[in-house]
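Structure tokens please, single chain.
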Amino acid sequence: MTSNDEHLDGFKQNAVKAEGPLKDIAGNSEAYARYLADVQGAVLKIKRNIETLETHVRVHCRGQRVKGDKWGQARLRAFPVERSVSTVLSDLESLAKDLEKSAHKHHAHAEGIQNVGKKRKDKKLEKEQKRTRQLQTAPQNSQQQGGQQQNSGYGAPTSVYNLRGRESA
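Here you go.
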């Protein structure tokens, strides 16, 4: 075995160890929501710390002036660092929103699964009712159609001016 295979084996063993509690959490929408709320709280705490760090980084980087700098050069050098920290902050905010959205979607999925049996029963009843209505109305329609064909005169082409008591479309 190579060192890479050993690394993967260790990963697989860790995944099996963690599978038990996470598998239980994934199966229960309330536990899933609680777990994601805990993770979201940790993410928001990290976000607050990085916001504080962003302020300190801005002050530090903009304060580092080199002899001979013109006005704004220190700020321009600090801009990429500030932008990367602000990107991290926006990613953390997005992550927190997505965690909440995921909890709602998991709950909606669980409700949908519970309602599947009821929906299937309702559809089956609708189909049966529709079939019985069609079977009841089918003989009546065939008698009416036969009577209309004799009186209507649809078999021969006619002119609009020669309708013989019929109304035009």
